[in-house]
Amino acid sequence: MKLELRGITKRFGSLLANDHIDVVVEPGQIHCLLGENGAGKSTLMNVLYGLYEPSEGEILIDDKPVYFRGPGDAMAAGIGMVHQHFMLVPVFTVAENVALGAESTKAGGFLNLDDTRRKIKEISDRYGFDVDPDALVEDLPVGVQQRVEIIKALVRDAKVLILDEPTAVLTPQETDELLDIMRQLKSNGTSIVFISHKLREVKAVSDTITVIRRGKVVGSAHPGASTAELASMMVGRAVSLTLEKAPASPKEKTFQVKDLTVIAPNGQHTVDGLSFDIARGEILAVAGVQGNGQTELTEAILGLQDRVHGSILLDDVELVGRSVKEVLNAGVGFVPEDRSVDGLIGTFSIAENLILDRYDQPPFAKGISMSPAKVLENAKSRIDEFDVRTPSGLLAAGTLSGGNQQKVVMARELSRPLRLFIASQPTRGVDVGSIEFLHKRIVAERDQGTPVMIISTELDEVMELADRIAVLYKGKLVGIVPAGTGRGVLGLMMAGISAEDAAGADHAGLVKADTPATETPPADTTDAATAKRRGTSSAEGGDHA
């Protein structure tokens, strides 16, 4: 089936999200839409899937115009979509989720799932999905849940499958398996629209690449194009994709976490007995799939969690039990994972956001009075130093692009002497040009002798910045390994395999070597990873994944 988007434009009030976009997806083709977060890729696909009505333009299937009033029309036309955030009901079985919206009944009005189970097994066997139709979705690993989403589309005879940032929540092994699944789907005639900003994956699997920047198509590329060329198309200028940093020179260990446990309201241990330390002048990067305790760990350090046990020492001072303000005043700088919710007040000016944690301290305040001149003077200095693209510090922070908002948060936290710097997802939703700048500032803080902790779900970022890497899985510390540890080993650790067993699999040749970005990464075939996905690891006595 040939799919064409012709002149698609989508406006939200005064915001122009898509600007006369033309894209053609040929039958049996993997067509990548490449662009940074906020470029308009997902909006375009929501138009294609019938979730949004285009302001202008048309959709053509096999050269005939079609009109979608909703996702049901898109599915009936042979278009399926796997959203970045899965649309599954956790307490339903796989079969119930697949049948949802297209239910059939038998005598007595009872739901008839036999035909759905048969179709799931047929598709699962064809593509090696290994999905049990009667398994509860909430019990399945994230990678298997994604396969359920793909099965939902294939059961409805999707000829074009849209995958929106499909690797955002996957381990490296699960990512490789997904890319292999995409190749199998293509070989069977399914067209795939692959939305991503990850150059390694785009180059590995795409047949053709359309680059979108600020809502417009800025060009097309062949997957053989260099990463530097693709990055410059995304950003609009040349960028360096390699961080140059000197080896760390760690000094005394001034930050120590001992037997830290965080208990959720439901009694679950979201952080479970963590112990680690960070020396002055080193970066400890915390890796792991999102949702394995990273958020709760940083909140416990900041004093945002109530039920915390164990010890958090900074310069031999206990932080557990202290308020957020007391923690910040102890010299902790913190960049939260969601800048729009926790890092900025969008309606406040840039200048005001730059002093949110020091508004009541000299030189910005004297007694109960603030000094607007000092606030603006500070803003001008920080805007220049951190290259925040804005005509004035008086503009509302919410009017800035994502990358510039992140620079404001980073500038605020790094504009005072620190005893500890924590950055959670420091470059999420940031273009590659801003990533280059922010990474250099993080390394510069390390080189000043500050202990630095980075929490990131982007494995490339972890490997780029880290002097040591700590891996979390289900709130527990799987292990701490040195910088330079291979992606395959780290991927196994992110799936819960111990550092020793992951290294053993690597030494035994069971872990595939890291794949250069210019080559096609192989699907993972390690015994350990396969066992972990199916919930039975000989290395861990049957611990469910």
UniProtKB/TrEMBL annotation:
Keywords: ATP-binding, Nucleotide-binding. CDD domains: ABC_Carb_Monos_I, ABC_Carb_Monos_II. Residues 513-529 have a biased composition (Low complexity). Transmembrane segments: none annotated. GO terms for molecular function: ATP binding. Residues 512-545 are annotated as: Disordered. Signal peptide: none annotated. It holds the Pfam family ABC_tran. Residues 3-239, 255-499 form the ABC transporter domain. This is ABC transporter ATP-binding protein. It comes from Pseudarthrobacter humi. The lineage of its organism: Bacteria, Bacillati, Actinomycetota, Actinomycetes, Micrococcales.
